[in-house]
Structure formats: C-alpha cells, structure tokens
Design a protein that fits this description.
single chain, 224 residues, alpha/beta, Rossmann fold, Alpha-Beta Plaits, 2 domains, four-stranded antiparallel β-sheet, 29% helix, 25% strand
C-alpha cells in the first residue's frame, strides 16, 4: 500500500459522495485532481455533467475521459469544486498556486456551492511554512515586489528551468513570497490583494465542506 493507493481510494470516495447527475463541476489543478477526473470519466452519467477546469493540464485530462465542458458563464452555478492544496494549516486555511493556477482556482472556490479538498498528509501543517504564490501583472512586478518587501515578505520571481519567467495562463508572473509568519491569513490575504498590480494571492481562507487526507499507509481520512 502507498500514498498513491490512498489517493486513488479517496478519489473514488469523493466522486461517489459529491457528484450527482446534471451538475456543474469545478476542477482544480494537480495530480490529485487528475485522479478525480479519471473517476468522473468512469461514471455512467458523465454525459450529464459539465466541467469548468482551472488549467490546461486538467482540461486535457478531462478531454481524454470524454467529459463535457461548461462555458465560463456557468461559474456561478458550480455545484462542487474538487481541488488540492500546497499547505493546509490548523485553521484549515490554505496556500495554493504551486502550479500557477491560483486565480482561476480562487474564482471557482469562491463561487462553488461545495468545496472538496484532497491532499497528502504532509500538506497538513500546524502553521504555514512555505512561500505564498502571488500573481502579479508584468508591468507591476518591480513595484509590487517593493511593496511586498515593505509588508515583511521576501519575494522571488518564479522561473522555468532555463531561467525564463514563469508565465501564468492569464499572462502574468508569479512572485513566490516568504513571510516569517502569517498569524492572520485572512487579513494578510486582503492586505496583499490591495497592492496595485497584484491579481491574486495564494492564501485561501474559505472553509471547505470536506478535506481528504491521503496517508502513506494507503488509507485516507475525511475531515468535515
């Protein structure tokens, strides 16, 4: 048994518990979301579902499974969104955006009637200990970096293997910003979002309806 076994099991459980006919489904990014997409593709009523993906990676996975896509005008009607997280703290706040799709993920999570988060046990922490992805318009990258430093952060522009800037699907850059501590995630999210040129912040404070924790022994736990 392994962590991969746990993710496969929790994907099946999440789809059985939360997916119903004629729903609009939001699809987050990452490997766990891919497992959930594959489970949805095996449903005998998959043709009644309409999906809104947050990334090209997951859109391609959904296309392989023959899933249908909803127009973005359907975002306000999303019944449930499935997503992962880079870290989840003791208050169930999250850091997301490691894959670069934080803006679209936050739009879906903010709009969905229900939110289901799946992550391996190592992502559940007492307090945040990793950088916060912050999506910034390219024109504002220098000014925003200066404001982030004044706010106590240490921003670094995300780059690809050869040193080129990482560009999001929205045409923006990401400043991965480290803070000594984040005692009030909601306040920090709002303060960072108010910086001119900041498009979205990878701190997510909406409480999900269910958190699936995959364990290394092949089992999983559900926290409601």
């Amino acid at each position: 048994m392994s962590l991969q076994d746990a993710i496969l099991k929790l994907a099946r459980d999440a789809v059985v518990k939360f997916v119903r006919k004629d729903q609009v489904i939001g699809l987050g990014s990452g490997s766990t979301a891919a497992y959930i997409v594959r489970e949805m593709a095996s449903l005998d009523f998959k043709n009644t579902l309409e999906c809104v993906p947050t990334s090209l990676q997951i859109k391609v996975e959904a296309e392989k499974g023959g899933l249908r896509f909803a127009d973005e005008s359907m975002v306000p009607d999303i019944d449930v969104v499935f997503d992962g997280a880079d870290q989840i703290d003791a208050g169930f706040n999250m850091i997301k955006g490691g894959g670069g799709a934080l803006m679209r993920e936050k739009i879906l999570i903010s709009a969905a009637k229900k939110v289901v988060i799946a992550a391996d046990e190592g992502k559940f922490v007492k307090s945040f200990s990793r950088s916060v992805p912050i999506e910034v318009h390219p024109m504002a990258r220098t000014a925003a970096a200066g404001k982030l430093q004044k706010a106590g952060g240490r921003p670094t522009m995300r780059t690809l293997d050869k040193g080129y800037p990482f560009i999001t699907e929205n045409g923006n850059v990401i400043l991965d910003t480290t803070f000594a501590s984040i005692s009030d995630p909601h306040r920090t999210e709002m303060e960072l979002k108010s910086i001119a040129g900041v498009v979205e912040v990878g701190i997510f404070t909406r409480r999900a309806d269910a958190y699936y924790k995959a364990k290394a022994d092949g089992t999983f736990e559900v926290i409601y």
